[in-house]
Amino acid sequence: MRDVTELPVQYFPGRDGTQLAYREVGEGRPLVLIHGYFSTATVNWIKYGHAAAIAARGHRVIMPDLRGHGDSGKPHDKAAYPPDVLADDGFALLEHLGLDTARHDTAGSPDYDLGGYSLGGRTTVRMLIRGATPGRAIVAGMGLEAITATAERTDFFHRVFNNLGTFERGTAEWRAEAFLKTVGGDPVALLNVIETSVDTPLGDIEKIETPMAAVMGTEDLDHGSPRALAAALPGGTYVPIPGNHMSAVTKPELGTAIADFLG
User: Fold this and answer.
1) What's the rounded Cα separation, in Å, for the pair 34 and 94?
2) Strands 19-25 and 10-13, how do they pair?
3) pLDDT tens digit string along 210-238?
4) How buried is residue 108: exposed, middle or buried, by Cβ count under 10 Å (0-12/13-18/19+)?
5) Share of the chain above pLDDT 70, in %
6) Is 183 exposed, middle or buried (0-12, 13-18, 19+ CB in 10 A)?
7) Would you state the pLDDT for residue 259?
8) CA Rg, the chain, in Å?
9) How far is CA 66 from the centre of its chain?
10) CA distances from 73 to 22, 77, 101, 140, 154 (A)
11) Which of 9, 62, 113, 139 is 20 to 30 A removed from 209 (C-alpha atoms)?
12) What gap in Å lies between CA 127 and CA 130, rounded to an integer?
């Protein structure tokens, strides 16, 4: 299998024509994995070995860079960031890959799986609400309350991006700014991205029939309850892993939990 540190970037068009990027590794059943806010596919899934671990279990792991992130387009025009555009981009990727509701595997199940971490997990839920039909889904680093009411964390990132260079070392804001520098994030594009978030009513979540794993670090206290999310779903499973919102991504248990759930 190809060294995942050398995965070439590939591109597909968003429905509005914005150039969007993705990488992939492995062969087998496709799994689309979406990274978290102001991270990238490389940082979230490749750097710490999750993509390689999942691919080794027989999966084709497909990892887009969200609009405004990584190697994807980062337009500054607010018109490029309508509500729920990240879900629109997710559907554009499924169409580009030929993964849609009409295709099934030999057992009659939908022929791909779908998941994400943090904002990627919320985007997964939005896609499910809007008609995506993967065989299984993973929502990691994102609990119920952060899906039903998105504004609380939005205020934090507005404070960070509008006051760069002013935070005391060691604070949550300082750590967020340090991570922004590490990934080379574009503050203007990222502020536009955060405005695209859409609240998902509990009643809509309760109608999701896709089997879903709610995966979260046991010390992640800022993104809602994964237990409550799992309990709200007819096919929900809570999967605890070590770490907080940031550190859980660096631990092998994240990739293992996803691979184990997919089988």
Assistant:
1) 12
2) antiparallel
3) 999 999 999 998 899 999 999 999 999 99
4) exposed
5) 94
6) middle
7) 98
8) 17
9) 8
10) 12, 11, 27, 25, 22
11) 62
12) 5
**Which pTM does this prediction carry?**
0.93
What CATH fold (topology level) applies to the domain 4-262?
A: Rossmann fold (3.40.50)
b/e burial code for range 216-230 (CB count within 10 A of at least 16 → b) = bbeebeebbbbebbb
Sequence-distant (6+) residues with CB within 8 A of 3 are none
Between strands 113-117 and 137-140, the pairing is parallel
Among 20, 18, 26, 45, smallest CA distance to 34 is for: 45
Smallest Cα–Cα separation from 36: which of 115, 114, 127? Answer: 115
CA nearest to 258, candidates 54, 86, 58? 54
**Beta-strand pair 113-117/59-65:** unpaired
How many Å apart are CA 82 and CA 63, to the nearest integer?
22
Are residues 157 and 37 in contact, defined by beta-carbon separation less than 8 angstroms? yes
Transcribe the chain into DSSP letters: ---GGGPPPEEEE-TTS-EEEEEEE-SSEEEEEE--TT--HIIIIITTSHHHHHHTTTEEEEEEEPTTSTTS-----GGG--TTHHHHHHHHHHHHHT--TT-B-TTSSBS-EEEEETHHHHHHHHHHHTT---S-EEEES--SHHHH--HHHHHHHHHHHTSTT-SPTTSHHHHHHHHHHHHT--HHHHHHHHTT-----HHHHTT--S-EEEEEETT--SS--HHHHHHHSTTEEEEEESS-TTGGGGSHHHHHHHHHHH-
